[in-house]
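Hello,

I think I submitted the 2-(1,2-oxazol-5-yl)phenol job twice by accident. Can you confirm which output corresponds to this input? Input:
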Amino acid sequence: MKIDVVTIFPGILEGPFKESMIKRAIDQGFVDIDLVDLRAYTHDRHRQVDDYPYGGGCGMVLKPEPLFEAVEDLKSHSGQNDSRVMLLTPQGRRFDQQRAREFSKINHLILICGRYEGVDERVRSALVDEEISIGDYVMTGGELAAAVVVDAVIRLLPGFLAEEASGDESFSGSLLEYPHYTRPPVYRGMEVPPVLMSGNHGEIARWRRRQSLKRTLERRPDLLKSADLLPEEKEDLEEIKKQQS
Ligand code: 97T
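Support: Only one job matched these inputs. Its output is below.
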């Protein structure tokens, strides 16, 4: 997989991509990430990437020419014919685990980091395949949103994580995680639930399933509506609901 991130602040993303799992994914050849400085695609002395909005108003708007030239150049050099151009913007469709799974199957992703003030509309209408937002809050630019998308997509690349870690967890299975414990067995008077130290794997699995259901019901009941529950999970859930009422 190839990911190009087009930005006027490549420095913001240098750190996140040089650490931990993303670094591992790059080093092991699962993904090739390039930070593309939009200013490299300007032709004027001032390397101008933005300009005043027509019609007036405050803030600056990203100019179309450098963005069109950058994307055309990246597409022509990628050697892929299925590049997808995504614009990070508050106006986009909300990014979620399902979108992450879809993106992880694309060979060449081009992520354009928008600015808070805006991007020339012709970029949206004629250059971008899809606009994405990572949530309902406002940032100064799309760089951190791009980092979120890259992280969520990379961990789904086939073979990168153990099957267990990528499949059996919150959101993928549409339930929240059960509580986790490690040593010591008692910390400041707080005990690890004895079932986890019982060695009874059937009981442990059942406890975890019930804890996941209980948490999801309490914190994210919206997730249960779209959840594809197993028969034993449905039974457990009914029992938990009864206990609560
Ligand atoms: O708030 C933003 C400003 C610029 C580009 C993207 C965003 C954003 O993306 N997801 C939420 C907000």
